[in-house]
Design a protein that fits this description.
This protein is an alpha+beta fold and 220 residues long. The chain has two helices and eleven strands. The chain starts with a helix and ends with a strand.
Length: 220
């Protein structure tokens, strides 16, 4: 009888130990997945910020080159330009970006000797820890020309089915776009807008689960 009792206790002990190992293993697996997901979200946000910063850098360099000479080329604005009008650069060792330039028909400009006047839009591809995100911004004409612009990229997140990036009261919006943070791609349906009496760039949000951010190139 004692042997049966001892055998039962041993069996129950083995079952309890097995269950504990299963629980610990499940918790560890969930923790690893959560860490991977958090790391992926961080890299995605960082790479988008790199692309966004690259657009601001590009606009500033375009303006500076145009102020110096209205007949400047892409190479004048971006000394690192090579091949088919591609600029590879970095913010720091981990934050890399690539710029490409497009004409009025949305064709990529073929070389660095093209005039800045041919540039209608800029695409910036940001990379952070092997995660890549892209931003594309139209460069619209403004009164007085680029030499007179003092521009700032402003952003705004979605609310009530829309996303708006608002300029300050004395600024004009000359270009902009929208970015779906969930899937890491530009969002469709963006447009210049008026929001609360100030100029803005907005976009409609088709899915309430989307995480859309608008950005506007606001100039004085």
């Amino acid at each position: 009888m004692k042997q049966k009792v001892k055998g039962s206790i041993l069996a129950y002990s083995m079952i309890v130990i097995a269950m504990m190992f299963a629980i610990v293993g499940s918790i560890s697996a969930v923790s690893i997945l959560e860490k991977k997901s958090a790391g992926s979200s961080h890299s995605s946000a960082q790479s988008f910020q790199v692309a966004d910063s690259a657009v601001q850098i590009a606009i500033k360099q375009l303006n500076d080159a145009y102020k110096a000479n209205e007949n400047s080329t892409i190479a004048n604005a971006f000394p690192g330009c090579s091949g088919s009008a591609v600029v590879d650069s970095q913010i720091d060792a981990k934050k890399l970006y690539k710029l490409t330039f497009y004409d009025t028909n949305d064709n990529q400009l073929p070389n660095c000797n093209r005039s800045l006047k041919d540039v209608e839009s800029i695409k910036a591809v940001g990379t952070y820890e092997n995660t890549v995100r892209a931003v594309k911004v139209a460069i619209a004409a403004a009164t007085g020309g680029p030499a007179d612009w003092n521009c700032t990229i402003r952003t705004g997140d979605q609310s009530s089915g829309m996303a708006f990036a608002k300029c300050n009261a004395n600024e004009k919006v000359i270009s902009g776009g929208c970015f779906n943070m969930n899937i890491g791609n530009p969002a469709a349906g963006s447009f210049p807008a008026d929001s609360g009496g100030v100029q803005a760039w907005g976009c409609s949000v088709s899915d309430a689960g989307d995480n859309v951010r608008a950005y506007a190139n606001c100039c004085l």
